[in-house]
Predict the structure.
Amino acid sequence: MNTAAATGRGSSLASKEFLTGCGVLVLLVVLLGFAVVGNRTRRDEGYPVHAAFSQIDGLDVGSDVRLAGITVGHVTAETVDPKTFQAQVTFNVAPNIKLPVDTAAIITSDSLLGGKYIALSPGGSDHNVQANGVMTETQGSISLEQLLSKFIFSVTDTLQKAKSADKAPNSSTDTQPHGGLSDQP
């Protein structure tokens, strides 16, 4: 009879552990759901603004839109205009932020290897960007590879010019005309 009692207690304990595990799993799923829905709601707040860029390398849907270093919106869509071949970016701006129409949208990096975001630099106009308005002052992203390539080309070009300058005779010091001053008596 001891074995039956032990078996009954063991299955009861396993059942409680199973139910506790299921409860924790359900709680995690609910919390994850709230996080996703809350995040989506936060990103959908505000008014949409459109901007065209020549390059948006590294900018993704969901990337931050920042004003004075503070996140005021997020990128909601990216497409290519088939007529101009420019990247068309749509982003939301918090409803309490009223941007002048001459505000510049600049794609920049968090750090050397970090993600990209849109930095807003307000202009001085008295008129504000309306919902679904277009920002005309934009600057696309600068690729790290392009910068390194330009730097390497510049250094190589400078070194080649320095070498060729060393090889060319310097006419003012190589020869002295007859009758000129000389170190020899």
About this structure: The first strand starts at residue 47 and ends at 53. Helices lie at 2-44, 144-167, 171-174. The radius of gyration is 33 Å. The mean pLDDT is 79.
